UniProtKB/TrEMBL annotation:
UniProt cross-references to PROSITE patterns, sorted A to Z: PROKAR_LIPOPROTEIN (PS51257)
Pfam families per record: BSH_CzcB (PF25973), RND-MFP_C (PF25967)
Species, as recorded: Candidatus Endonucleibacter bathymodioli
Domain CzcB-like barrel-sandwich hybrid: 65-188
Name of the protein this chain belongs to: Efflux RND transporter periplasmic adaptor subunit
Ranges for domain Multidrug resistance protein MdtA-like C-terminal permuted SH3: 289-351
Superkingdom, natural source: Bacteria
GO cellular component: efflux pump complex
Coiled-coil regions, chain positions: none
Organism ancestry: Bacteria, Pseudomonadati, Pseudomonadota, Gammaproteobacteria, Oceanospirillales
Entry GO MF terms: efflux transmembrane transporter activity
Family the UniProt entry places it in: Belongs to the membrane fusion protein (MFP) (TC 8.A.1) family.
NCBIfam families found in the cross-reference section: RND_mfp
InterPro entries: BSH_CzcB-like (IPR058647), MdtA-like_C (IPR058627), RND_pump_MFP (IPR006143)
């Protein structure tokens, strides 16, 4: 006897068989695993390295002068261009000097005339031909004419602009045959032998600087953008005792000779590296490491300060109790609980649990 099944019966039996077969294979059903959370890490550095601080800086000309004529006139000859190197005393520009030359010659002739009259009065006074009053008047006129002549001579010299020191023409502000006024800037001259680097040091560092503990032989160094493989020693020049407007920091200026192997110009960027251990009080030089403020949290029950440490061997995180010191611009001082090389989580710490598996997102170096 042959059993004939309808299409619907056949599909139903097939579905039941498939379900029974799947139920017998206990390995065919995958259990969803929790996603591994990515975390951002920060690597703690040795406390001695923390004292090596980097400060952004801009190159300045150590000497700079805005040059102008002391008298008005028409610019007759601009003898230099921007970028030209010049020597002290070199002529940089001339005004049309015809008027002042004529004035000088006129004053010179007047002076010579009054000089002759004075000598004549002096001779006649000895012969008692003229009075003492006539002699005194001739003498006064001569002295007045001499002063006027000196003024005319100065005006003639003022028609020529000379370099007050060795340097480089940074800017030309006028063109030939232009009418210029007295004290109007014509050229900007910058010294080309020495440059300055100015940095801003925050009050949190300045307050710990001790003049008695500064290593007098120590020299910070500079690294220029685009040439980070080279460093150049700096010499302290000066510092401001007035806070920089809009900040809580103070300007400190260092100098160095212009590098011979680099084309360093005013306005370029540089980094000044200072070992704070050479300038700050001994009590502030160590005994702690720095971590970002975002790495610090409090334990739920005890309110003690903890950080979450990451362990390479297990890819797990665990809370570690720490003792914190001061909060500075560079980070939070950790007095105890962490060591050089430890890795701490700096983002998303509120979602971490003890022993949680995580995946490093990015590792930051010490501050």
């Amino acid at each position: 006897m042959v059993l004939v099944l309808s299409r619907k019966q056949w599909l139903l039996m097939t579905s039941v068989a498939v379900l029974l077969t799947a139920g017998c294979d206990e390995h065919s059903i995958e259990i969803a695993r929790p996603a591994v959370r990515p975390v951002k890490l920060f690597q703690v550095q040795d406390s001695n390295k923390i004292l090596l601080r980097h400060f952004p800086s801009k190159v300045r000309a150590s000497k700079e002068a805005e040059l102008s004529f002391r008298i008005p006139g028409s610019l007759n000859n601009l003898a230099v261009n921007q970028g030209d190197d010049v020597l002290k005393g070199q002529v940089l520009a001339h005004l049309d000097d015809r008027d002042v030359t004529n004035e000088f010659r006129d004053r010179q002739a007047t002076y010579q005339l009054l000089k002759n009259e004075f000598y004549r009065a002096q001779s006649l006074l000895k012969k008692k031909v003229v009075s003492q009053a006539d002699y005194d008047l001739a003498k006064a006129k001569l002295e007045s004419a001499k002063a006027v002549l000196e003024m005319a001579k100065d005006k003639l010299e003022y028609s020529t602009l000379k370099a007050p020191f060795n340097g480089r023409i940074a800017q030309t502000a006028v063109k030939n045959y232009q009418q210029v006024q007295a004290q109007q800037v014509v050229l900007v001259l910058q010294g080309s032998d020495v440059i300055d680097l100015a940095i801003q040091i925050p009050e949190s560092i300045i307050v710990h600087v001790n003049k008695m503990s500064i290593d007098r032989g120590y020299k910070p160094f500079a690294v220029f953008t685009g040439a980070s493989e080279k460093s150049y020693p700096l010499v302290y020049k000066e510092h401001a005792t007035r806070v920089t407007a809009g900040t809580q920091s103070y300007e400190v200026i260092f100098s160095l000779p212009v590098p011979e192997d680099l084309n360093v110009l005013p306005g370029m960027s540089a980094t000044v590296v200072i070992d704070l251990g050479k300038i700050i009080k001994e009590s502030q030089r160590g005994g702690y490491v720095l971590v970002p403020l975002s790495a610090i949290t409090s334990a739920d029950a005890t309110n003690k300060m903890v950080v979450w440490c990451f362990y390479d061997q297990t890819y797990e995180v665990k809370p570690v109790e720490v003792q914190i010191g001061r909060i500075t611009e560079a980070g939070v001082q950790i007095i105890s609980g962490l060591h050089s090389g430890d890795q701490v989580v700096t983002a998303g710490i509120s979602r971490l649990t003890d022993g949680m598996k995580v995946k490093p997102l990015r590792k930051e170096r010490g501050l």
